[in-house]
Design a protein that fits this description.
heterodimer; A: 221 residues; alpha/beta; 52% helix; B: alpha+beta; five-stranded antiparallel β-sheet; five-stranded mixed β-sheet; 9 helices; 21% strand
C-alpha cells in the first residue's frame, strides 16, 4: 500500500463490504466522497480499487464467493474507475507513450487499465487496447503507435503459453522494444516470473514502485 | 434402511428436486392447473403457484386452450418464457412426462445459452469501459485545444488592439483638424477608415471579452446599483448609433426592481449588446424599448425590437459563441456571434437565464431573467 493515503480503514472496509454485496451505488458514493475529500487518483487506484480486488480474487479462488459475485465486483470497479477517469487525462506530457494490452483469451483487464492510467498521470500517453488482444492486432497497434514501452497483462496463470507466444511475435517483429509484463498470474504461488527468464528486454513489473522505476528508466534511456 | 433401497433412493432424489435443484418441477393436470410446485419454481416466479394455472407463469397471459404445446408429453425440450420475481424474463426448456392422470413438467435454463450471454455482457462491458476511457481522453484533448484557442485569441487581440487604436485615433484627428483643408471626397474616405477601425475595435474587444470569460476569469463584483442608472448607461452607449438611423429608444421600467445587487458594468455590457443587436436588426426609424418586470420568480429585462424576428430553429443556438459565424449583418458587417454569447455567460454567472421570444406586433424580444437573489430590495408581494 502506498504510504500516503487519505482513505481510512473504515472507508476501505465499507467499500469492500459494498463491493462483495454488489452494491454499485454505495461504491460509487464512497468514491465520490473520497474525491470530494481530495483523494488523488493514484491513492484511489491503489488503496481502494486494487486493494479491494485482492480479497475478491482470493475469496473466489477459495470457492467462498461465486463467479457471479467476482464478475460483478470487477464490473463495479470498472464503473467507478470511469467516474475518476476525467482526472487522469490532460496533465503535462513528457513525449513518451506506452501501449498496454491483455493477451488473447485474457479477460481480466483492470490491471492493464490501471497501468495505462497511471502512466498518463506520469505524463505518458497511455494507449490501452483492452482484454483479449490477439497477437496480430497487437503487432498492428505497435506499428501504428510506435510506443516507447509495451505492457502486457496476465491474470490467469493458465494463459501463460499465450503470453509467451505473444512475446515471441512482438520481439520477432520489433526486436529491442522494451516490454514489461505483470499481473496476478505472476504471484509466487503460481510460480512467479521464472518463465520470463531468457527473454531479453522483458521485465516483470508487479508493483507500482516497479512501474514508476520502469517509466523513469525508459525516460533516461 | 440401506441407501440402495429404491424407495429411499427416490425420496432422496425427489427431496433434492423439490427443495434444492435449480430446475422448475411442476405437477399439473390436463387442463394446466398446477397441483404442486417445487421450491425453485416458487422462488423463481415469486408466486405460490399451487392451484394456479400454468398460464400464470408465462410472459403473456395465455388461455388454457393454448397451453397444449406444453401439456403433451415430450422428451424434446420446448421453450417456455416465464416471468420472474425480479421483473425479468427467464427462458426455460421444458420436458414433460405423464404420471397417471397428471403431468410432470421439468424446466431449466440452457447453461450454454447463459454462458454465451455472460461472455457477451462481459465483453460489452469491457468495450464500454474502453470507449469511456477514449472519450475521457478526447475530452481532455478538447479542453487543451480550447485553452490554446483562447490563448491565441487573447494574444492576437491584445496585439491588434494598439495598432487599430492608433489608426482610429489618427483618422479622427485628421478629420477634426480644420487647418488641413481636406476635400469632401477625402473626408468620406477618412470617415470610412474610422468606421472600419471602430468595427475592428469592437471585434477585438469581443474576442478579448470571450477569452476572459472562457478562461473562467469572470469574477463578478456584486454591488447595489440603481436600475435606472444601469439602463441609462447602456442607452447612452448606443444613442449615437440609434440617432444615425432615426430610431427611438424607450424604457418601461418596473420600480419594483429599482435597486439590484449585480455586477453593474457587466450587466450594462449585457444591455448594451442586446441594444446594439436590436438597433442592427431593426429598420430605420424603428422603436427600441427596454422593459423590466419584477415578478415572483425573479427580475426580467427585455429589449424589444421591430426587426424580422428569429426563427425557432435559430433560437436554440443563438446565445452560443460563434453561432452567427460567417453571416452578414444588415449593415454589411460580418457577424461573428460573440455579443449574445457574452450576454449568456454574464447572465449565467448571475444565476440567471437568457430569453428570446416573438414580440407582439412584429419583431423580437431578447432578454434575461435574474434570480431573486439579485434584488437589493424585498420583492413586491
Amino acid at each position: 500500500m502506498v504510504t500516503e493515503t487519505i482513505i481510512s480503514e473504515s472507508t476501505y472496509d465499507h467499500y469492500l463490504d459494498a463491493l462483495l454485496r454488489g452494491d454499485r451505488p454505495i461504491c460509487s458514493r464512497i468514491v465520490q466522497d473520497s474525491c470530494t475529500e481530495g483523494a488523488e487518483v493514484k491513492d484511489l487506484y491503489l488503496n481502494l480499487f486494487q486493494r479491494s480486488l485482492y480479497p475478491v480474487g482470493d475469496l473466489w479462488e477459495q470457492h467462498r464467493i461465486s463467479v457471479a459475485v467476482e464478475h460483478l465486483a470487477t464490473a463495479i470497479t470498472e464503473r467507478v474507475m470511469t467516474q475518476v477517469q476525467p482526472r487522469v487525462f490532460g496533465g503535462a506530457e513528457r513525449g513518451r507513450s506506452i501501449l498496454v494490452a491483455c493477451v488473447a483469451d485474457e479477460y481480466h483487464q483492470l490491471g492493464g487499465r490501471m497501468v495505462a492510467d497511471l502512466a498518463e498521470l506520469h505524463g505518458w500517453r497511455g494507449h490501452f487496447l483492452g482484454a483479449n488482444t490477439p497477437a496480430d492486432g497487437l503487432l498492428q497497434m505497435i506499428d501504428r503507435h510506435k510506443p516507447d514501452l509495451l505492457g502486457l497483462s496476465l491474470s490467469v496463470y493458465f494463459n501463460l503459453p499465450t503470453l509467451l507466444r505473444a512475446l515471441d511475435a512482438v520481439h520477432g517483429s520489433f526486436p529491442g522494444l522494451p516490454t514489461m509484463v505483470g499481473g496476478q498470474a505472476f504471484r509466487p504461488r503460481w510460480g512467479g516470473t521464472g518463465a520470463l527468464q531468457g527473454y531479453r528486454d522483458v521485465r516483470p513489473v508487479t508493483t507500482l514502485d516497479e512501474l514508476e522505476r520502469e517509466l523513469a528508466g525508459n525516460e533516461r534511456a | 434402511m440401506s441407501v440402495l433401497d429404491g424407495t429411499t433412493h427416490l425420496e432422496i432424489g425427489w427431496n433434492f428436486l423439490d427443495r434444492q435443484a435449480a430446475v422448475v418441477v411442476l405437477r399439473v393436470d390436463d387442463a394446466g392447473r398446477i397441483l404442486s410446485a417445487n421450491s425453485y419454481a416458487r422462488e423463481l416466479t415469486g408466486l405460490p403457484l399451487i392451484a394456479g394455472s400454468l398460464g400464470d407463469l408465462l410472459i403473456m397471459s395465455t388461455e388454457r386452450a393454448e397451453l397444449g404445446r406444453w401439456l403433451a408429453p415430450s422428451d424434446e425440450p420446448r421453450m417456455m418464457n416465464v416471468r420472474t420475481a425480479d421483473g425479468l424474463t427467464q427462458t426455460l426448456y421444458v420436458t414433460s412426462a405423464r404420471l397417471g392422470s397428471e403431468l410432470l413438467l421439468f424446466g431449466q435454463a440452457d447453461p450454454r445459452e447463459q454462458d454465451r450471454l455472460r461472455r457477451e455482457f462481459l465483453e460489452l462491458n469491457q468495450e464500454l469501459t474502453a470507449l469511456g476511457r477514449e472519450l475521457a481522453l478526447a475530452n481532455a484533448e478538447l479542453v487543451r485545444l480550447n485553452g490554446l484557442k483562447n490563448k491565441f485569441l487573447g494574444m492576437a487581440s491584445h496585439d491588434l488592439r494598439k495598432p487599430v487604436g492608433l489608426i482610429l485615433n489618427r483618422a479622427e484627428l485628421l478629420l477634426e483638424d480644420a487647418t488641413l483643408n481636406i476635400s469632401a471626397d477625402a473626408c468620406r474616405t477618412i470617415s470610412g477608415i474610422i468606421a472600419s477601425a471602430r468595427s475592428m475595435a469592437r471585434l477585438i474587444d469581443g474576442f478579448l471579452d470571450i477569452t476572459m470569460i472562457e478562461a473562467d476569469r469572470l469574477n463578478l463584483d456584486l454591488q447595489v446599483v440603481e436600475q435606472d442608472g444601469l439602463v441609462a448607461g447602456a442607452l447612452a452607449l448606443v444613442q449615437a448609433a440609434a440617432a444615425e438611423r432615426g430610431m427611438k429608444l424607450r424604457t418601461v421600467l418596473d420600480q419594483g426592481c429599482a435597486r439590484l445587487r449585480v455586477d453593474g458594468p457587466k450587466l450594462e455590457q449585457v444591455l448594451t449588446n442586446l441594444l446594439s443587436n436590436a438597433i442592427e436588426y431593426s429598420p430605420d426609424g424603428a422603436c427600441i424599448t427596454v422593459v423590466s418586470q419584477a415578478q415572483a420568480d425573479g427580475i426580467r429585462f427585455w429589449v424589444e425590437d421591430q426587426g424580422a424576428g428569429v426563427d425557432l430553429e435559430r433560437r436554440q443556438r443563438i446565445f452560443e459563441a460563434f453561432s452567427g459565424s460567417g453571416g452578414l449583418k444588415p449593415s454589411g458587417e460580418r457577424s461573428i456571434g460573440l455579443g449574445l454569447a457574452i450576454v449568456r455567460k454574464v447572465v449565467l454567472a448571475h444565476g440567471g437565464s437568457c430569453l428570446v421570444e416573438d414580440r407582439q406586433g412584429g419583431g423580437s424580444r431578447f432578454g434575461f431573467l435574474l434570480p431573486n437573489s439579485c434584488r437589493a430590495t424585498s420583492p413586491k408581494s
